[in-house]
Specification:
Length: about 475
């Protein structure tokens, strides 16, 4: 099993979780990895092993029966599992990410309902993306109200653990919530895989062949309204903020695979003694450890509040890991030589899985765009100092508007989304503080200040007076497909 970077401030509990993950990965997951890769079968036994060890509950708080591990502990566990089997690591990572979103956005009732199940071995998955620009366009998957339930119809074509997960977090468009900002009329909803009307299909990919990468279909799926993620009155604001402030992303799988491939290359180079191999190994090691160090730093940032710093780092580690991981695996194959190209060598699997990690969640093109938008938005954000207190969620969402829109919005839209316009709206509501609730209200069609009060006059047809312009998104970027 590969040697991870021994982070300098690990607690005893974090070390125990890391060592447990390494042990389970070595004894239970690695021996099955090649078979699942060859056959393209889901890594069910490996997921069960994670469940029996308690690791599926690594990020579930202790009060719900989980390990209550820190973000860094969960990160180290995912990396260790990915070094043994990238497919298992990918399913494991999205499972932890679902728990992270619900834990950060609420409500408590969903934690009470599902967290004990996850701690006991149930598997979660993400079913968010469509062939739409995430957060900026209306989704085709629609939820209609029917008494105490939602009726969901649609298709999600980019899902890991498709047809295998017990619970999916699904992003839907609410049919009866009009809004000039599409994401404000959307919700994350937890949909159980056993609900009638939930179907699945699986692709035949080059890598991550055991992760059941495919899609799910939803045909008249009845889901209780209580399964909607996010505390009212601003569920989507909290959900988006939580999702974008995370260390959990596909790059963790790439780093795990790269660590395993590097160990294979080191072992081969020690036997051959070729100087060129030593010169090749050196930059692979320092690049990998640099990416790990940045990742572990982001995990520590997660212990604090949501922030633009954390979101920007979240985007940078996705891009960095997506480049470093496959590169290390590729050069490791070069060191080992022709034997690495054979099915008998695990390096070719490490490479394919690391390369496959460049597509889930966001493609590399969009990861680079996210980083650049954050750089532009940071400068634009700094040009607009606040004149009143802003709570962290409200300030984060304001930054997202500028991080994603400062280079793309028309001038009038920029004025309507300025900090001054937000603060004028807060004062029109009798507040001297911009709260996340007021931020959410302003960003929806309901955010209409009294006549003559609020943001700049005028506005696009169909947009609310003093509110945001039609078509302005609240973060995110175009997604794969």
């Amino acid at each position: 099993m590969h040697a991870q970077l021994d982070w300098y401030d690990l607690t005893d509990e974090e070390r125990k979780i890391r060592d447990l993950a390494i042990d389970v990965a070595r004894s239970e997951i690695a021996p099955r990895a090649d078979e699942h890769d060859r056959e393209g079968t889901f890594v069910r036994e490996s997921i069960d092993a994670l469940g029996k060890s308690g690791l599926l509950g690594v990020f579930v708080p202790k009060e719900y029966g989980g390990m209550g591990g820190s973000p860094l502990a969960a990160t180290l566990a995912i990396e260790a599992v990915s070094a043994a089997c990238g497919s298992t690591g990918m399913s494991f990572m999205f499972h932890c990410n679902l728990i992270h979103v619900v834990d950060g956005a609420g409500p408590d009732s969903l934690k009470e309902k599902y967290f004990p199940q996850f701690a006991a071995g149930k598997l979660g998955a993400f079913a968010i993306n469509e062939q739409r620009r995430l957060f900026r366009e209306r989704f085709d998957t629609v939820a209609e109200e029917d008494g105490d339930d939602y009726i969901i119809n649609g298709e999600k074509p980019f899902v890991t653990s498709a047809g295998e997960a017990d619970v999916y977090i699904v992003q839907v468009q609410l049919s009866d919530v009009p809004s000039p900002i599409p994401v404000m009329g959307q919700r994350y909803i937890l949909v159980e895989g056993a609900y009638p009307g939930v179907g699945a299909f699986v692709y035949d990919p080059m890598g991550l062949r055991g992760a059941s990468n495919g899609g799910i279909t939803l045909k008249d799926v009845r889901v209780p309204k209580e399964n909607a993620v996010g505390d009212e009155p601003d569920p989507m604001v909290r959900s988006v903020a939580t999702k974008g402030n995370s260390v959990f992303s596909p790059h963790l799988i790439a780093l795990g695979c790269a660590g395993a491939a590097l160990d294979e290359a080191i072992s081969h180079a020690r036997k051959s003694g070729s100087e060129w191999m030593s010169h090749t190994l050196a930059p692979l090691s320092d690049q990998l450890n640099a990416a790990r160090a940045y990742t572990y730093y982001v995990a520590r940032l997660m212990e604090g509040p949501v922030s633009q710093r954390l979101n920007h780092a979240h985007n940078e580690i996705q891009r960095l890991g997506g480049e470093v991981g496959p590169t290390v695996c590729d050069r490791a194959m070069e060191i080992v030589g022709g034997g690495s190209f054979m099915r008998t060598s695990p390096i070719q699997r490490y490479y394919r899985d690391a390369r496959g990690s460049c597509y889930p969640a966001f493609s590399m093109e969009h990861r680079r765009a996210n980083v650049a938008d954050g750089l532009y938005g940071r400068a634009a954000y700094d040009e607009q100092p606040p004149s009143m207190p802003w709570d962290p969620h409200a300030d984060y969402n304001f930054w997202l508007l500028w991080a994603r829109g400062s280079m793309h919005l028309p001038e009038e839209a920029k004025q309507r989304m300025s900090r001054e316009a937000f603060e004028d709206f807060a004062r029109s509501r009798g507040s001297e503080e911009m709260t996340v609730e007021l931020c959410a209200e302003y960003m929806t069609s309901a955010g209409r200040p009294p006549a003559g009060v609020g943001g700049p006059p005028g506005g696009p047809p169909g947009g609310p007076p003093g509110g945001p312009p039609a078509g302005v998104g609240s973060g995110g970027s175009p997604q794969p497909g």
